[in-house]
Amino acid sequence: MEKKKVKNLVIVESPAKAKTINKFLGSNYQVESCFGHVKDLPKNKLGVDIDNDFKPTYVVIPGKKKILNRLRKLSSEAEKIFLATDMDREGEAISWHLSQELDHKEKLRIVFNQVTKKALQEAIANPGKIDINKVDAQQGRRILDRLVGYKLSPLLWEKVKRGLSAGRVQSVAVRLLCEREDEIEAFTPEEYWSLSVIFTDDKKRKIEANLYQIDGKKPKIKDEKSAEKIVKDLVKGNYKVVGVKKTKVKVFPYPPFITSTLQQAASSHLRFSPAKTMKIAQDLYEGQDIGADERVGLITYMRTDSTRIAKEAQLSVRKWIEKNLGKEYLPEKIPVYKNKKTSQDAHEAIRPTRVDLTPEMVKKYLSSDHYKLYNLVWRRFVASQMIEAEFDRVSVDIQGILPNKKELLFKLEGRWIKFSGFMKVYQEKSEKDKAIPILDAGATLSVEKIILRQHFTQPPAHYTEATLVKALEEKGIGRPSTYAPIISTIQQRGYVRWVRGKLIPTPLARIVNALLVTNFATIIDTNFTAKMEEGLDEVEQGKKKWTYLVGEFYQHFKRDLERAEANMKNIKEDGLIPTSMVCEKCGSKMVVKIGKFGEFLACSNYPKCKNTKPLDHKIGMKCPVPGCEGEIVEKLTKKGRSFYACSRYPECKFLSWDEPVEEACPYCGNSYLVKDQSGGLKCPRCGKKVKSTVVEKINLDGVICEIVKLRKISHAVSS
């Protein structure tokens, strides 16, 4: 009897990917999942021999022994072993560790940018070897992070609070957040006013133009009194069109997505966090059932910093565009997009694996979130291969001569689409038409309405998850695979709160950041961290040894660590962040301290005065409950969610999940409003949304003047 042929073993990282690949390979292949990393540095000790060229000691991860035993048994029976883990550094390291643990026969490394039948067959037919340079780059990063974590965290336990952790890259991200918070707190809003006029021509057509100059200089209207003075003269002026400029404008398509731009667009368009975006993208990459017993990876590999597109995919999408949209939407040459200098270009951009699988075709098979992200990727890719959009833009200058001989200049611009080009498929939110009447130079105009608007200068915006990803990318901190984990980590470890989409550093973050900036200025310097990232890239390219890179880093780190152990301030005893609050018992200033259960306020005159109280952030509003003398403070739940309560709680029972503001509801008279999730205003009693502006109207010689004032809290809302 003929002996049954042993199957070839294919090992991937996830069960979903294994399920998809099983559909493509025949009965001679058995596809198994290793469920991610199987080996790592030990949890209970450093695992790095610093004196022996930073040699790491790897151990099997707890819980992975059964998985490894099964894979060992299967590999011993298999004819060939194909290691098909992901194509990034982490995937290469997983394959390397598997190769050490499995049967002694040769292990064949296969990589593929998309989970499709053709890509799998090509990979199987052309196996390679494990890329040891890529493995070394992963080892270098892992050991750098382990050295920081295991050497720095105990110091923070001793000086600040037990259980704290510090990371090489996460600490730099926290520094960015803290520095932004410092800028916001130091900012002083300044009032200014803008002025626009609605003119009519002899055909009764209306146009709104903004005041651009007064006597050739940019207008500076600081307050309402100054604005009203201009308006009184303005109604008596003579106005005419002195310039009309028509231009044709081309708007070019965006490049296909890379990891960072996908995370930013998904945040803007879909309100997805980076972590959610990457989880859904991973699902789309690994495979989805799309009917008729068909399962396919819908997008290419989602961790990439390259905008390169495979020639085959470019030709395929060009055929689709010509057939479905028309030849006029095709550029003569295939578009080529420039990569960043640090881009590895090893992977393609993120694109659909098959352009013929339109979002509409697969919608019924996908969850709502999976469909939304696939739709975004598909449209961005198709648009990136299309011709530019064309607009007609018109700029109009209107001159006004006042009775006091002052000369005013008003400007307005409009644009309307002449040819949609790529915008037929993909548009950013900011890209809107603004049509205006075509006016003739020399035409006289009449003032129909004047609009004065109050504004306040705004501080720098808090980081959102999307803008933090953008900042990390621009500064060269982290790489595509690390953006989402960095943001998730700093939230999980209590260094940042998520408030209406904004990332707000906690007092704990600011205390730890101040200590690290003082004592470890080099390692949490953005330029130094970016240099380390470039070094890891050089390791991957075979240009540098990982041991040299780690040694270079450790020289700086060891010196800072020794100095910090001797000199770092003991926050448990001293406190760090001074406040403007005064101790009601002795009159000294209160400081923020860290205790077993978190941050609290303590008297700086300790131990003479032992006054302490909870750290609650005042928002500058009295409690709206009639007769209560308390103030509204922001508190945190044990899970880190913000809520608002009276400082006299539990005597006063006022509580709100939304931030209250001291402004009466114009509809029902309720004594306060709250900020909703979008930062707007609503009434908690009647539920109606309340505009952030109040409009007053006055009549000046038959001309209506609208004065649009911000509610007293509105400038804070918009920040």
The residue ranges in which pLDDT falls below 50 over 5 or more consecutive positions are 714-719
Mean pLDDT: 90
The CATH architecture assignment of the largest domain turns out to be: Orthogonal Bundle
Biggest sheet: strand arrangement = 9-10-15-14-11-16
The helix-and-strand class reads alpha+beta
Shape, per Cα inertia axes? globular
Topology record:
Layout: E1 8-12, H1 15-24, E2 29-33, E3 39-40, E4 48-49, E5 55-56, E6 59-60, H2 65-77, E7 81-83, H3 89-101, E8 107-109, H4 117-125, H5 132-159, H6 170-186, E9 191-200, E10 206-214, H7 224-234, E11 238-251, H8 259-270, H9 274-286, E12 288-289, E13 295-296, H10 311-324, H11 359-362, H12 368-384, E14 389-401, E15 407-419, E16 444-456, H13 465-474, H14 483-492, E17 496-499, E18 502-505, H15 507-519, H16 526-540, H17 546-567, H18 571-574, E19 577-582, E20 589-595, E21 598-603, E22 612-614, E23 617-622, E24 631-636, E25 642-646, E26 655-656, E27 660-661, E28 673-675, E29 681-682, E30 689-690, E31 693-700, E32 703-710, H19 714-718
Parallel strand pairs: 1-2, 1-7, 7-8, 16-32
Antiparallel strand pairs: 3-6, 4-5, 9-10, 9-16, 10-15, 11-14, 11-16, 12-13, 14-15, 17-18, 19-20, 20-21, 21-22, 23-24, 24-25, 25-26, 27-28, 28-29, 29-30, 31-32
